[in-house]
Amino acid sequence: MLAKQVKSGSVISIDGAPYIVESVEKHTPSARGAATLYKIRARHLLQQTKTDLSCKGEETFPEPDFQARESQFLYRDGETFTFMDLETYDQYTLHADAVGEQKYYLVENMEGVYALLLEGHMVGVRLPDAVEQQIVECDPGIRGNSATARTKPAITQTGLTIQVPEYMEKGEVVRVDTRDGRFLGRAN
């Protein structure tokens, strides 16, 4: 996989070890002839350590031998998250440390999640690009401000704090981008 093709959620091999990419920043230099740099932050799938890389777009990363299985997030029990493979109905558990910040996007019985399996053991999770969540806490909506671009903080059912337009109310269901935590709009 080329560095310019790597995106958040990709699994790559660094020095023979499997890593999941948490973020990618593209830096385009202003000087002529200078190469575009990609800054990649990745987390080791087994040891949970993080590493930062800077590379050019044409550098390659081998893809480790792993499986991404379509799964459903079932429930959270303390520090353990339980997922079910939608094809085989096998259940996998993952510790909260391995889930990391992705826990704010997981809602019970959510489908569209991919369990990342390495040698038959679940080592990570890949979320869909957008999820729907209910707002459980925010300031009251302000009538007449629906045309403005001003925002206010809101907390979703999983504890995620996002910025929403001022007209949003408690109880509304919104779409949230899982890559950057950005409000995308009301859910259909």
Any overview of this molecule?
The protein has 188 residues and is mainly β. It folds into three domains: 3-56, SH3 type barrels, CATH 2.30.30; 67-126, Nucleic acid-binding proteins (OB fold (Dihydrolipoamide Acetyltransferase, E2P)); 130-186, Nucleic acid-binding proteins (OB fold (Dihydrolipoamide Acetyltransferase, E2P), Beta Barrel), CATH 2.40.50.140. The chain is 2% helix and 51% strand. It is built from one helix and 14 strands, in the order βββββββαβββββββ. It has one helix at 96-99; strands at 11-14, 17-27, 37-44, 50-56, 67-77, 80-85, 91-95, 110-118, 121-126, 130-138, 151-156, 161-165, 173-177, 183-186. The strands form three sheets. The chain has a five-stranded antiparallel sheet with strand order 7-6-5-8-9. A five-stranded antiparallel sheet has the order 12-11-10-13-14, with no helix packed on it. A hairpin with a 4-residue loop joins strand 11 (151-156) and strand 12. It is flat. The two termini are 35 Å apart. The mean pLDDT is 86.
Compact overview of the structure:
The protein is an all-beta fold.
SSE topology:
Layout: E1 11-14, E2 17-27, E3 37-44, E4 50-56, E5 67-77, E6 80-85, E7 91-95, H1 96-99, E8 110-118, E9 121-126, E10 130-138, E11 151-156, E12 161-165, E13 173-177, E14 183-186
Antiparallel strand pairs: 1-2, 2-3, 3-4, 5-6, 5-8, 6-7, 8-9, 10-11, 10-13, 11-12, 13-14
Which tags fit this structure?
single chain; 188 residues; mainly beta; SH3 type barrels; OB fold (Dihydrolipoamide Acetyltransferase, E2P); 5-stranded antiparallel β-sheet; 1 helix
